[in-house]
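PROTEIN DATA CARD
Card holder: GPN-loop GTPase 2
Chain length: 313
Origin: Cyclopterus lumpus
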Amino acid sequence: MSGHAGAASSLRFGQVVIGPPGSGKTTYCRAMQEFLTQLGRKVVVVNMDPANEGPPYPCAVDIAELVALDDVMEGMKLGPNGGLLYSMEYVEANLDWLENKLKEHGDCYFLFDCPGQVELYTHQTSVKNIFSQLAKWNFRLAAVHLVDSHFCADPAKFISVLCTSLSTMLHVELPHVNILSKMDLIEQYGKLAFNLDFYTEVMDLTYLLDHLAADPFFKKFHRLNEKLAEVIQDYSLVSFVPLSVKDKESMIQVLRAVDNANGYCFGDLEERNLQAMMSAAVGADFQFDSTLGVQERYVETRGKTVEEEMMDL
Ligand SMILES: Nc1nc2c(ncn2[C@@H]2O[C@H](COP(=O)(O)OP(=O)(O)OP(=O)(O)O)[C@@H](O)[C@H]2O)c(=O)[nH]1
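Structure generated from the sequence above:
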């Protein structure tokens, strides 16, 4: 397979990294930048979060130089949420600044570290308009949407995560990869009721609803949850790739999914670097990992199968 650069030099590939506050976006950008650099990809990270002061990665473009959240809150007498909405509208109104900054980095692979406020991706249009302008400047981007994996351990929260993910996918209108982040902490707040692939593949949600109905508190919300599950399943768009940033095999899974989504082609050199890196890490005959492998590493005791769960009901 040949590299992408020669074939389409004016195209610039990359990822917009989105997700709720604390889901791991900045950590992901740093880890992905290091990982891709090892593979030989020339990567730059763009901080798109006006509240992100001094990000922990070498930052090629920093939106806080254009608009800083603290200044907006003070000057406009706004709280943090209103301030962030205003800041992104300000960026949208000053896109020539961003265009000039990005031009300085020509033919690189771009990681955009975006703010975490959920309504930016489900309601407000500024961020979506910024993304569509990036496409007009020949960026081929995938949205990488991180959500904390420990929500899987709580069926009600998982349904809410599914709703947010679906809503974000429909609103942002980019090729989309949903990630369950912090897999190493997935069972930090409770055990999973089902195998991991039930959550990553978003299998038949009626099992989740039945599991939820066993909790007296949620009994009265059964019909609401049923309708929400119906919407999610009717669209049939949401699925997840599991990730722990310290786990190279799960980083490869994510990278494969993202490259598929935005159309980036692995070059030969990159493929060789990947083989060398992974054979040093896990032995020469490594294979790209599956969800089952991730489950074995991070889910302490295997959850019940759907069939076992139904036997209990
Ligand atoms: N154990 C573990 N911790 C992680 C992982 N990814 C992120 N974290 C931790 O999660 C916390 C939040 O990560 P950030 O990268 O700051 O999250 P963010 O989404 O950028 O947060 P905001 O900028 O507030 O929106 C930090 O303490 C990270 O160290 C992971 O894969 N495993």
